[in-house]
Specification:
With 136 residues, the protein is α+β, with helices and mostly antiparallel strands. The protein has 6 helices and 4 strands; from the N terminus they run H-E-H-H-H-E-E-H-E-H.
Length: 136
Amino acid sequence: MKTFIKISLTILACGLCISAMAANRFIIKYKLNEAQISFLSAHSGADEKKAKAQIRAQMMEKISKEKIDALSKAAGVQAEDSHALATGAHVITLSEHLDEKQTEQFISNVKQDNSVEYIEEDKTAKVSSMPAMHHN
């Protein structure tokens, strides 16, 4: 039993090291654009809930080709819009894994875009891709 635990912990540690070294999934959220802000301002009061729902639906649409191209350029590899989250943020995947330094540089490059509210590494993808440990 002790040998099993040692082996399991070693495998887990290796998995953590590998996942800490490479990233290819990120979460990005863009700020509302001027048209969306104006639309919300014009529909305050009784129509506000409906207006917010329309903006939320727009935020769930695929990221534009121009923004994907900018993300690809910032990463130095091809970016793709995987899917939208309920918050209006999007999960983007890169065609290659970035090491820690490349990840920091990519995030720094993307943050220079004033239309970006935030970008972060999708750490939940790393946790969910780790092998499950079974106890007897």
